[in-house]
Design goal:
This protein is an alpha/beta fold.
Length: 426
């Protein structure tokens, strides 16, 4: 396929944080699901006579969004808890009364596996239509060895179900007029958003269990079964959840099993979890609402990505993470939705980009980079988040002339077409 007449193409080609490396009046050649060539349209190489040609009529184009922090597999509804927070109750008060994560755990355990997969696939389908082509999905609403494994399997199955729900879109070849032919929906195995499963058995201790006993359950029964079923292990370190020492024990064992490491760090209070992420060389420290300059220095030196979640702070009406401070300290920054039923029921990465700019102080270029290549680095994926030869052809075409319209027009559906692994979707 040849995509041409791209008014503004975000490539992230340099790899330098915040440098979106725009090519104007650009074209892209795609072969076998990967990007084969990128450059000015005037320099487009000769292509095969049967090449599909798409003229995007000056629209902007960019890499697919990489959402590096979600909790997409769950059952139940916590809209009433959302209203309780708006009436003045704190997250901790709701959690202590049996709500919060525990209410989602109860609903999730009661749901069948097919119900969990169907619901998660619907969420992924909507996210794909909004440009998210890679999504990290955590367990954490099972809290038993059986249910945590069930959620990890459901996450991967939901990605497959999303492909059947969304289908792919084929274009008939046209080497002369550059006109769009009628869209024809077919089913393709590579059109699902790539799912990166993360084990979050240490989300909160199960109700009725002492924290130490639950940590032992995670370490002795859950973790040995996780390799091959998840890419990462995460721990929620905060009030009402787990301590730094708990996390160190769990994550040290997880690293020994070959799992990548992630942490929920410094969200509700400052615990020292960011320093632990640096100590252990974690891939990512997430939230960081209460991170300090000392934390930023440690994360920068250790190469830990700061995955910031502006929609969660927005939803909880709490102070945003110090994104400007972290960026200026040299920390690699990603932004993600934190899509979950209680504290960030947000599926839109374009909205998160706008919030990162308007609420967190990032520039449009920094936020776009953090939502694409920053997310890929958070997940240690080298083949996406950029538009360069050899990268997977995960692409978003905006119905706008510039990427600047994403933060400029929050809440507007600006995604015109989405490509996943070289196939059009949605």
């Amino acid at each position: 396929m040849l995509i041409t007449n791209i008014g503004q193409l975000v490539t992230n080609a340099s790899g330098v944080p915040g440098d979106v490396a725009v090519v104007r009046d650009a074209a892209i050649v795609i072969e076998g699901g990967d990007i084969a060539w990128v450059g000015p349209a005037a320099a487009t190489p000769r292509t095969h006579p049967d090449t599909v040609i798409l003229d995007v009529e000056g629209r902007a184009m960019m890499p697919g969004f990489v959402d590096a922090h979600t909790h997409l597999v769950y059952a139940g509804d916590r809209s009433e808890e959302f209203a309780r927070r708006l009436r003045g109750e704190s997250y901790e008060q709701i959690l202590a009364s049996g709500g919060g994560i525990h209410s989602t755990v109860a609903a999730t355990r009661a749901a069948s596996s097919s119900e969990l997969v169907d619901a998660a696939a619907s969420r992924m389908g909507r996210m794909l239509r909004m440009g998210t082509t890679t999504v990290e999905v955590k367990s954490g609403y099972g809290l038993t060895a059986f249910d945590e494994m069930r959620l990890l399997h459901a996450a991967v199955a939901a990605g497959q179900r999303a492909s059947r729900t969304m289908g792919s879109i084929d274009l008939a070849p046209d080497g002369t007029s550059h006109e769009l032919h009628e869209w024809q929906v077919t089913v393709g195995s590579d059109t699902r958003p790539t799912v990166v499963p993360t084990f979050l058995g240490a989300h909160v201790p199960d109700r009725g269990m002492e924290r130490a006993d639950y940590v032992a359950l995670v370490v002795e029964e859950m973790l040995p079964t996780i390799p091959g079923n998840a890419d990462f292990c995460d721990v929620f370190v905060d009030r009402g959840a787990f301590t730094v020492d708990d996390a160190r024990r769990i994550l040290t064992i997880a690293a020994g099993l070959g799992l990548g490491l992630r942490l929920h760090a410094e969200q509700l209070s400052h615990t020292g979890a960011a320093a632990l992420a640096a100590e252990l060389g974690a891939a990512s420290a997430d939230h960081l609402d209460h991170a300090t300059p000392e934390d930023a220095a440690a994360l920068a030196v250790a190469g830990v990505v700061a995955t910031l979640l502006p929609a969660a702070s927005f939803s909880m009406r709490s102070p945003q993470a110090p994104g400007r401070m972290l960026w200026d300290a040299g920390v690699t920054v990603a932004i993600a939705t934190d899509c979950n039923p209680g504290t960030s029921n947000v599926e839109s990465m374009p909205l998160v980009i706008a919030l990162a700019c308007l609420e967190m102080g990032l520039t449009p270029e920094e936020a776009i980079w953090a939502a694409t290549l920053g997310g890929a680095r958070s997940l240690r994926l080298a083949d996406r988040g950029r538009v360069t030869p050899g990268a997977v052809a995960d692409l978003v075409i905006l119905d706008a002339p510039s990427y600047l319209h994403i933060p400029y027009r929050p809440g507007t559906d600006l995604v015109w077409k989405v490509m996943k692994s070289g196939e059009w979707v949605g």
